[in-house]
Amino acid sequence: MTDFATLLQPDRGQAARTIHVVHPDAFADWLASQPARVRTAVAAHRLTGKAGNRAVLPGDGAEDWSVLLVCNEAASSPWRIASLGESLPEGSYRLATGEPGAGMLGWMLAQHRFERYRKREAIGPRILLTGEPARIEETVRLAAATAQVRDLVDTAAADLGPAELEAEAATLAKMHGATLTVTRGEPLAKGYPMIQAVGQAAAKGREPRLIELEWGDPKHPRIALIGKGVCFDSGGLDIKPSAGMRLMKKDMGGAAHALALAGLVMAARLKVRLHLLIPAVENSIAGNAFRPGDVLASRKGLTVENTNTDAEGRLVLGDAITRAAEDKPELIIDFATLTGAARVALGPDLPATFVNDEPLAEALFAAAAEVGDPLWRMPLWDGYDELLKSDIADLVNSADSSFAGATTAALFLRRFIPEGTAWAHLDTFAWRPSAKPGRPKGGDALGLRATWALLKTRYG
């Protein structure tokens, strides 16, 4: 893991290179104010003041250089100076004017690399100086949580199964003095039949389980964080095509988000009674795999006709939500890489977000906007509940209709939410298909910072 704490330092006037961040609209005036050598260097680089222009600018001596970045991103954007964090030579830097603020996060994450399978050339740290030292600790924690999500999602399924997710939760519990409970085997089959059904075809050593972590003062408000932990999804007997299976190591992205968010909650010692739940399974194919047409029992008592073995995530979440609800939390948040329909509707950047409580929705989307971690609200449209009707059971897990797939999946989950309990469901991609500054191609945290900002404001 990258040592993020070394990448931000309080500005005490120590030697550092200067970074000029200039908006395109201010470029001409800025350039006119610079000495001749800077204007000459800008002309030699053929810079026009377009967003993304950058250059190393000469100073009085050979080693006395500074950096120019033309940037049209708001000062509140975490990614404003991320391109420099990943490209500048090692050393210390400070902004010519203002404070890096939210940009500190992107600066650090730009220097994070996933190196489990391939080592890269070692590059010394690029240190950013800030006059806001009080923000350093929080930003370092957030960078580490984001990197944790990325690393877990990027890890190959052969190296990250239900047991490894359990180990991640155990490490987190030990670090913060939390209580860890793991249910597997016969108790799982009896108590959480949908989790058992989805994972029962997995090979020895990759058996299904429900991982639970509890932390905090029982007198404080109880909140539940739930993450879909499908460590690999073949689609089951409704097998995915090879193209659809290619990225299914990331189907535990919801669990990665929930683990990282739980870590932030405990590190900040929010005034909550935290309940983290991860139904961890592998949706495999074998002679004992659950079948299309099987009618599954659930922990809640509802019966579910399994119309699609590739709609397994909502099944494991249903049992986990039921368990969380038994302790009467005032808030439930779940994360899941749940539907392709959400990606068709919104693309990779926007988690489809369903909320059953208006004050919660208002606070959540305000938090998302404040920290630059966008979410997009989708409807819990009651009229589509009828698409979940079954001829032989209480409901089906997947509607026959191809319409509104993300909404019908959310409506399925809503059947397990108690009346009056505030709930948010984030159908997140957990993946970035192409690189952007500070955000490499691969696993990514989408919705983590928004939900953290919500919880910090509400319970901090």
Helices and strands in order:
Blueprint: E1 8-10, E2 17-22, H1 27-32, H2 36-44, E3 54-57, E4 66-70, H3 82-85, E5 91-95, H4 103-109, E6 126-130, H5 136-154, H6 162-176, E7 179-184, H7 185-191, H8 193-199, E8 209-215, E9 222-227, E10 229-233, H9 242-245, H10 253-267, E11 273-283, E12 295-296, E13 304-305, H11 313-325, E14 331-336, H12 340-346, E15 352-355, H13 358-371, E16 376-377, E17 395-396, H14 405-414, E18 422-427, E19 431-432, E20 442-443, H15 448-459
Parallel strand pairs: 1-6, 2-4, 2-5, 5-6, 9-11, 9-14, 10-11, 13-17, 14-18, 15-16
Antiparallel strand pairs: 3-4, 7-8, 8-11, 12-13, 15-18, 19-20
3D structure, described in words:
This protein is an alpha/beta fold. It has 15 helices and 20 strands. It folds into two domains: 4-121, Leucine Aminopeptidase, subunit E, domain 1; 156-459, 3-Layer(aba) Sandwich (Aminopeptidase), CATH 3.40.630.10. The strands form four sheets. Strands 7, 8, 9, 10, 11, 14, 15, 16 and 18 form a nine-stranded mixed β-sheet that branches. β3 (54-57) and β4 (66-70) form a beta hairpin. The radius of gyration is 24 Å and the shape is elongated. The chain starts with 7 loop residues before the first strand and ends with a helix.
